[in-house]
Specification:
- 26% of the residues are buried.
- Helices cover 20% and strands 36% of the residues.
- The longest helix is centred in the middle third of the chain and has 14 residues.
- It contains four helices and eleven strands.
- It starts with a strand and ends with a helix.
- The strands form three sheets. A five-stranded antiparallel β-sheet has the order 1-2-3-4-5, covered by helices on one side. The protein has a three-stranded antiparallel β-sheet with strand order 6-7-8.
- It is of the alpha+beta class.
- The chain has two domains: 72 residues, no CATH class; 79 residues.
Length: 172
């Protein structure tokens, strides 16, 4: 279990290691893990940012508003942590064709969605003195420790270009 937001609406919020394949936060304090105090809010729907009550529990409208404000204040950090969580759980796949990377989130589920990233736009000029993208494509894989996409030819992940996935994966 990860605690990500402390004390919002009278609860600690986070997610568990075996979870729904959709970004969310839920009550994780001992007295609200189940029963009438349990609450959950979805933070995305097929890659679109949202804030939706999933399980209402006994939260008042002002408590939901407080949680929503806390989520909005730390949205970037929550998304980065969720992306790293997705990568560790193999809920995110990447494939390269030419200079385009296709990301598939939650493959094989109802929440599955794809995004495409053009590496020529992300790294202009970085690979222009190499063979063409089709002749010798760079290696594209995830840095599981940091939740990033790595691109390059070096065997070491640390010596490749790194790309944050937050702005590519989740949209408004």
């Amino acid at each position: 279990m990860a605690i990500l937001i402390r004390g919002a609406a009278g609860h600690d919020w986070g997610w568990y290691s075996r979870e729904d394949q959709r970004m969310h936060v839920q009550t994780v304090d001992a007295d609200a893990r189940s029963g009438p105090l349990k609450a959950k809010a979805w933070l995305e729907n097929r890659g679109r940012r949202t804030f939706e009550r999933a399980v209402s529990g006994k939260l008042s409208g002002s408590e939901w508003s407080e949680l929503q404000s806390k989520v909005a204040a730390d949205r970037e950090g929550l998304e980065d942590l969720w992306i790293a969580f997705m990568i560790r759980n193999d809920w995110l796949k990447a494939s390269l064709r030419g200079s385009s990377v296709t990301l598939t989130a939650y493959p094989g589920t109802a929440q599955s969605f794809t995004r495409t990233i053009d590496l020529r736009e992300q790294f202009p000029g970085a690979y222009q003195h190499r063979p063409t993208w089709d002749e010798k494509p760079p290696v594209v894989e995830f840095d599981r420790e940091h939740g990033l996409l790595t691109v390059g030819y070096d065997p070491s992940l640390d010596r490749r270009d790194h790309l944050s996935l937050r702005e590519h994966l989740f949209v408004d």
